[in-house]
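Record 1 of the preview.
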Amino acid sequence: MLRRSLLVAVAGWGLFAWMLVATATPAFAQGKIDELALDRWKLLREAERHQLNVAEKYYREQQYKIALGEYEKFVALYEKSEGASFAQFKWAICQIHLKKINTAISDGFQTVIDYWPDSVEAPNAAFYIGRCYKETGDIKKAKKAYQQVVSKYADSLAAVYSLSDLIDVSTVEEDVEARVAVWRKLVFEIKRTPGDAANLCNQASIQLAQHYFKTGSPTDGVISLATTWKDNQFPYYVWAYCRTPIGELAAEPKTKDKADKTADGCVASIREKIQTDLSKEEDKKNAREWSYYIADIQAFSRREEKVVETYQAILKQFGQEDATLQRFGDYYKAILKYDEARKLYNQFTVRPDGLGQVAYSFRQQQKWDEAVTYYKQAAGLDATNQAKWNGEIGQTYREAHRWKEAVDAFQENLKIDSANTEKWLWLMAHTHKEGGQYKEAIGVFRQCTNFPENTKEMALCHGYLKEWNEAVILYNQVTSHAPSAPWALYQIAATREAAGEKEKAIQAFQFVCKKFPKDGHAAQAHAHLQTFYKINVTLGGAAEE
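->
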């Protein structure tokens, strides 16, 4: 089976072929087409089962050359066996892994079709012929092979795979009409048996729907999605897959009408699912959630009046719920109408939460003092969460680069929230560091207990202060933490270089290469030695070679 491992093996075939393969790989993810069904295993004699198990073992271990010989042995010994066609089929797949594509086609898959035309493997072999052509870039032959599979083996899983690959072919050929025809066949004609067939048909229903949404045909798009998702699932998937096409259409004046048409169609399909009798809690919950979907769709269509109308209807029907006010306010923020958003946040039933949202909206506008004012109001109404609001105040000042006020807020939390001492110390230390107060930062980082992260930060701060030896001492401490050792050794080398200690720096960079030849930091050190010092080193030394 052409698994992801093959994608690496065929990389040399060229970028074009690789691009074709990459999009088609999921068709094989289930691992069914290259496995012998259990009911067929039962038909094998003991000796046959033993021989086939040996071949399968080597195949699973990716020892394809050995596996190929074992499959060949099976066919020679048990030509009339139920497993003979399967063994020949797997022999051909091994040839693919060994990069012998022409042999796989002519001596492998074609042999299966010729000698075992009624076997389960015959349609699979025919499909693989098409796949081989596709991967080697022979699109015309691939297309013909796939079409033959669909015509001759219409009810097989191979036909579903072939249709899926024909979508990729039509993309390469830029043939939209052909692509739609294949999608429609997968969506409306193929029986969705559990497994790959259902998965590929479901995916096609999404792709077809999105195509119709992009072309301003919402009814067709909705019908496509309805073949996969029904009842209470349906509104979510309409919402999930119509938004991006609508947003793209609405962004261009020439296609704005299509955006509106698609949005209206999708909204109507969701509204049809909302029950008129909401006496049941589940129906009420669904109605509210689906109404949110409608508002979101209208937002993507860039029709403010429709969004406002939808949210006002929700508030009227379900009451002034904070969740709705939050969504409504967030919409206004998204279109930069902050004052309108704040009016809604101020209507929250849970007053501190509403004030927090008002504060955050000012923070987003970089109106720091106004933000702090509202955070303080929230704290005044919510004494049990004083530390939370102080933390927000500290973060606000931190964003404003008002370092002392930020540190003071975090410092206050050390007194009232001892359970989270580590958190507040860490924020204080980083605030000092961001403000260029490196000595103060080192002092606070030293109080933290999250080694090695605190030690890393102290070392960096010593570096900023050009206290090179102190930095190196701390980086050496970090090397005791195995996952951080390559990083720390590289930092030692960089520190030596910054200190003007050329020879020590070179030795340190070389040590990174020698100690951790397969780590990314060794690659960086190697490149730096070459470009900066004009020194060539082999990662890992002679032993690694």
